[in-house]
Design brief:
It is built from 14 helices and 3 strands. By secondary structure, it is mainly alpha-helical. Strand 1 and strand 2 form a beta hairpin. Helix 6 runs antiparallel to helix 7.
């Protein structure tokens, strides 16, 4: 993302002395984010700080508690000149969140805080939904690529990975953080301890996915440690965590082998949500299984398409009498 245009601001917005991170609004806000979101939002806050100080300080050297409505309104106007509406709104959301931390830390008066965050929302035009849902034959082809006769250790491990992504709807970083103790083969439960924003949730794998994971565990063994592990080039299991990038590489390789169009690990989450909704599961239950903050977020993962809408209206009865 390009840096937005700068706006003049008085130098009293600069911090004049070091502030403990526990009392720094931007640091407190960033510490509450997931590892994946933190760099993006730090970049957004740096861009706002550069804008307010004509490029002279970053997010950690700006006195966020000194911001007033004239500053935040100027930031909004400057961002709208160069950036897409969705990007502007995301950056302004970060700005509001930092000011909220300043208010909770008693660094800014309530009246000044309310005025500073009272900015009109930026309307974002409808966009084509990102990602896609995988079709049943595509998932079958991926599993077949891993479960062919004479499957190697790495094939069994990859089948378990795909089964968890498809059957549990987990994020990449959630999968690689799973421990052996997190899986209960008797119920199919997976304990997700390191979800987004440090949240916890419990999901359940379908019977078929459980059987595939148990095949992997028969090879992995019952030693404590990561549920899914790297495989040495000679087929030896290494009891250490996989990386989220390794998951991405595995899926790309298996898609190529199976002749499946390109997809992301997150597309398995979209498939998970879409298939459950299509099966008639209520959206609140799907929200809880996916670990979303609200049903509104879950609705954005729905990729069922036009056929589902066409089938839905067939449930509406309209009296009709055919004329002779």
């Amino acid at each position: 993302m390009r840096d937005p245009p700068s706006v003049e601001a008085p130098h009293h917005l600069f911090l004049t002395e070091l502030v403990p991170l526990t009392l720094h609004p931007a640091a407190v806000y960033l510490s509450g984010l997931s590892e994946g979101s933190r760099p993006t939002m730090r970049h957004a806050l740096d861009a706002i700080a550069y804008l307010l100080t004509d490029g002279e300080c970053d997010a950690m050297n700006l006195d966020w508690a000194a911001l007033r409505y004239q500053h935040t309104a100027a930031v909004r106007a400057a961002l709208m000149q160069r950036l897409a509406p969705a990007t502007c709104e995301k950056m302004l959301c970060a700005l509001r969140r930092v000011l909220k931390e300043a208010r909770k830390l008693k660094l800014i008066e309530a009246e000044d805080y309310e005025a500073a965050i009272d900015l009109p929302r930026i309307d974002t035009p409808p966009r084509k939904l990102r990602g896609r849902a995988l079709k049943g034959d595509e998932i079958a082809a991926l599993m077949e690529a891993c479960q062919k006769e004479g499957a190697r250790t790495i094939d069994v491990r990859d089948a378990a990975l795909i089964a968890i992504l498809r059957g549990g709807g987990l994020r990449r970083n959630e999968v690689v953080n799973l421990e052996l103790k997190d899986f209960d083969s008797s119920t199919g439960a997976l304990e997700v301890h390191k979800a987004k924003r440090g949240a916890y949730r419990r999901v359940y794998l379908p019977t078929g996915a459980c059987a595939i994971v148990e095949q992997w565990l028969a090879i992995r063994g019952n030693a404590p440690g990561p549920l899914l592990c790297p495989i040495h080039r000679w087929g030896q299991v290494t009891l250490r965590p996989m990386t989220s990038d390794a998951v991405l590489r595995i899926l790309k390789r298996r898609a190529l082998q199976a002749g499946v169009d390109s997809f992301s690990a997150h597309d398995f989450r979209r498939t998970f949500c879409s298939d459950l909704l299509d099966a008639g599961v209520d959206i609140v239950t799907v929200q809880k299984l996916a670990g979303h903050t609200s049903p509104t977020v879950t609705a954005k993962y729905d990729r069922r398409g036009e056929e589902t809408k066409r089938r839905a209206v067939q449930n509406l009865e309209i009296p009709f009498k055919k004329r002779d």
